[in-house]
Design brief:
heterodimer, A: three-stranded antiparallel β-sheet, elongated, B: mainly alpha, two-stranded antiparallel ribbon, about 70% helix, about 0% strand
Amino acid sequence: MKITRRQMLVLLPAAAIAWEHVMAGTPEAAPNYTMSEHWWSMLIDIPKCIGCGNCVRACKEENDVPDGFFRTWVERYHVEDEDMTNPTVISPDGGKEGFPPVEKEDEGKYFFVPKLCNHCADSPCTQVCPVGATFVTPDGVVLVDQKYCLGCAYCVQACPYGCRYIHPQKEVADKCTLCYHRITKGLTTACCEACPTGARQLVDLKNPNDPIHEFLRTHAVQILKPQMATGAKVYYNGLDGSVR
Amino acid sequence: MSGVEGYMYPNEINLYWSVLIVLYPYITGLVAGAFILASLERVFNVTAVKPTYRLALLTALSFLIVAPLPLQFHLGHPERSPEMYFTPHSTSAMAMFGYVYLWYLMAVLTFEIWLDYRREIVLMSQKSKGLVRVIYKIMTLGSNNISERALHIDEKVSWIVTLVGIPSAFLLHGYVGFIFGSIKANPWWSSPLMPVVFIFSAMVSGIACVMVLYMAVTKLRGKTIDMKCVDTIAMYLFYTFIIDFSLEMLDLIHRIYEADESFRTLDFMVHTKLYFSQIVVQIIFGTLVPLLLLAITQLVKLPEIARKRMYAVAGALTLIGIFAMRWNVVIGGQLFSKSFLGYTTYKMSLVTKEGLLVAVGLTLLPLAILWVLVKLLPPWTDGHSAEGVAAD
């Protein structure tokens, strides 16, 4: 096909606009990193969590999370023997500064549950975004293109786990990125790095040498709200049935 | 934390969809309902409602013009909203809004109104002077042929447009219901009944709106209200309302009987935070009282003046009740935690972008637009049509 100079002049700007749309939704380039070789998720080992709040503080610092909103937070559950389905839960300031002393030490059980985006494989937030500003990367991380997001908050409504919020200054959807800027450079996430007990571990399911495979084989591991069928990828070891 | 009872996930404490998102389904509902009332005359030959045919169309158009505005005010980045047209996300229910809206605005409503008024527009463009003449000239879209044959074709095309318009009106509002009904994360919304309930409540609100407007405007114009027309509209309002109420009760009974994991939380919410807006405003004053009034007018032979007053009260209460229904869906759906362990409070601001003043302004704006439309395209059948104006 022959293209005249005139046609070329029309086509070039059109191609430039189209290219911009193609690029929107492409994550930041990272050298020596092949997306198709990874499938990221996280393991939360509940018995190991001491509720120190290091992870919440590290996340706030690393990702400049606005006050009053959380990409990760820690909940403290109190489940009494006679009322298993009705736990008392607290998360003062997302557990950022730790927790107050327990009141009824002898009654029921207490435990901490760190929460973050579940980076669902079939994520409802991605499904409902009207412009595709939120998307799942080929390496399994749910991200938001904040230059493209309308700020309609439909994704916030669609997330069953309460992991999303509208950034009060940027007025776009914001959430955990699994520290994508770090993990694509061979680092772990800020929360995992700050955890003193190893209760949070970044895992790469496509890496055959990742200890997660052995862990999943030998432990009773669950995900949150499996009935939602979102393909949640944050695995919880020792998860109590009362956790929502 | 103020306004929080029990446990909310920390990102849930603020509501993300405000009173403006309450207005959005309310306004689109009025559009769909008003159009369906208009189609009664055109497609189903219910000649009694003819006096409201054009008023219903103009009302639908006025509200449709305003329908996207609450969304625009709500968006964090309204300047990016055209992306919904250029790069819609195929799996998103919301992405279709732009297309459904444009289709309804251009292919259905505006087209039908234009066809219906074409003769008057052409006559006015010939008889008026100055700026008004220019406006009418533009409105003719260059089509000046008002021969009998041309008008006959208009009539036929208009009938087809209305026929297409009925499923389109269902689509417009059923789709709004689907936006809520398809959110599996939220048990207050997630229900296949939601689109159907939205359609019927839309019809109820649209019919009530046109009935009240017709009676108010006729009174203001010093003309006599066509009682046969209002009686017929009230009858349709009554029957549609029964279907709507039955569907809502079916949803309620289903939830109570099934009593799934969310039931205890939702039940508590209805008895506390939503008690006034749901039980008192929506169900008692917004549904049962108007239904009772309308039932009396159907069963007992009442004098004209009593019927008029009862229709006016029933219509106004219905409009408030349907607004409360939208409020309870949108706001109620965000007052409880998805952990089912707690509740938050909606604090409506006054003068912010999503505050009360903007909401009131957006509710009144369609009436201002309707006033302009009525001036340009008089909908009256009692001798004061555009043609009449032209002859004056």
